[in-house]
Write a structure and sequence with these properties.
This protein is mainly beta. The chain has three domains: 127 residues, Immunoglobulin-like, CATH 2.60.40; 92 residues, Sandwich (Immunoglobulin-like), CATH 2.60.40.10; 137 residues. It has three helices and 25 strands.
Length: 436
């Protein structure tokens, strides 16, 4: 009897282990649809992975793999127009996660949309803002639970705005002398980020001003818009506006000639604030307001990318400097209209991330985005309405360029005790072969 129990014991233990493995199967995560049990005013029927076309399922597979390995959030879904008009791409509708982040979603034929990347799971949680915008349709500002480490699926329908509630905008574009500008580009879009969307797709309206400088747009629903005005040779201008339902907004704009500056700079690459010794790089940069920012480490203007320290932008006829990637450490200060050589050491404090007016013949000091490096530059030339034809002030003459005196003196004019010193200097020069 004892031996029979001993014989069956291993089999009994094995059976218990098998039951433990299969009976304690890991619980599957809740499906993405679980957060949408309650009906939403802006969401239509719920969708899931299997509803997407196969070529978009391949994109979803990549996002799911990214979420599995690195965590984060991803939103996907579908939008339709209630009048049956097709949604072909992001040129028809703009969709953005807009809650502590402005993250655009890629929109595909049929109204399907997917985030073009996963982002941090810190953006997960309840009541996250989500915006949908399309010309001629009521804007949607929704909120819903965004799931962490899995895809959140949502579905929307946009309603066409009734004709009597559609608004319009019109105006006149002129130059600095109030003369109408013909052929100026005017573009209306929605003020949300569209970076990363396929081909930079976004809904927009475009037109050119007529010979009287006039422009107009119709069919605007009650949302906020961004208007961009541009013409070759002029600095662009932009404005935001929200038209009341059924109203016409008048937006007149004045464009100013595109200005430029020339700066002479010294870049200290060894982390020292000293501008007279060390690994110094010097040069001259011709810089227009619409050409990007300066990377002092490379000594050139770049459209974008890492290393850009300072940007130049234009507000009407005024040029301003803007620090890039302000961190509380890097920044800028204006040392004033002083000779460039006078600024030999960068100050330890006084740097700001606030915009600074560009002033001719002023010296500026920058603590760059590269850790511990400094640059100084002087605005040696500026094209602008307030500085064209301006001459360099007398205060800019370097202090060391002092004219020699015309009064002549000799050894006999020195006091006796100083003549003794001169005698020693003469003997010293003679001993080293120098002429007395």
């Amino acid at each position: 009897m004892r031996s029979r129990y001993l014989t069956t014991l291993p089999a009994l233990i094995g059976a218990i282990l098998i039951i433990g493995v299969y009976g304690c199967k890991k619980e599957e995560p809740k499906t993405q649809r679980a957060s949408y049990e309650e009906e939403s005013k802006t969401q239509t029927q719920k969708i899931s992975y299997r509803d997407f076309p196969s070529h978009l399922q391949a994109i979803l597979d990549k996002r799911i793999a990214e979420l599995y390995t690195s965590g984060g959030i991803c939103i996907a879904g579908r939008v339709k127009f209630n009048d049956g008009s097709p949604v072909g791409s992001g040129n028809d509708v703009m969709i953005n996660l807009h809650h502590d982040i402005d993250e655009p979603l890629a929109v595909y034929e049929g109204g399907w949309f997917v985030m073009y990347r996963t982002v941090s799971s810190r953006y997960a949680g309840p009541d996250k803002g989500f915006v949908l915008r399309a010309f001629g349709y009521d804007p949607i500002d929704a909120s819903f639970d965004v799931l962490a480490n899995e895809i959140t699926y949502v579905d929307f329908e946009m309603k066409r705005t009734p004709p009597d509630k559609l608004a319009s905008v019109k105006g006149v574009v002129t130059d600095a002398n109030d003369r109408p500008l013909e052929g100026a580009d005017v573009l209306i879009s929605f003020p949300f980020s569209y970076r990363g969307t396929p081909d930079g797709a976004r809904p927009q309206m475009k037109t050119l001003t007529d010979p009287n400088g006039e422009y107009s747009f119709e069919g605007l629903s009650g949302a906020e818009y961004s208007a961009l005005f541009a013409k070759s040779g002029y600095a662009y201008d932009s404005h935001k506006f929200t038209p009341p339902e059924g109203a016409t907004v008048v937006k007149d704009v004045k464009l100013y000639p595109r200005d430029r500056v020339i700066i002479d700079y010294v870049y200290q690459a060894d982390g020292s604030p000293n501008f007279t010794l060390g690994d110094l790089k010097t040069g001259t940069i011709d810089w227009s307001a619409d050409k990007g920012g300066v990377d002092f480490s490379e000594g050139k203007v770049k459209a974008s990318g890492p290393g850009v320290d300072l940007r130049l932008y234009q507000e009407q006829g005024l040029l301003k400097f803007r620090v890039v990637n302000t961190s509380g450490l890097n920044g800028l200060y204006d040392a004033g209209a002083v000779p460039f050589d006078w600024v030999t050491v960068a100050d330890e404090t006084g740097y700001t991330g606030d915009d600074k007016a560009c002033k001719l013949y002023h010296v500026y000091v920058v603590r760059t985005s590269e850790e511990g490096n400094y640059a100084k530059f002087i605005v040696s030339h500026e094209d602008g309405p307030e500085t064209r034809g301006q001459t360099k002030p007398e205060t800019q003459k370097p202090a060391h360029k002092v004219q020699p005196t015309t009064l002549s003196i000799s050894y006999a004019d020195f006091p006796p005790y100083l003549q003794t010193i001169l005698d020693l200097r003469t003997l010293d020069m003679q001993a080293h072969g120098a002429p007395a």
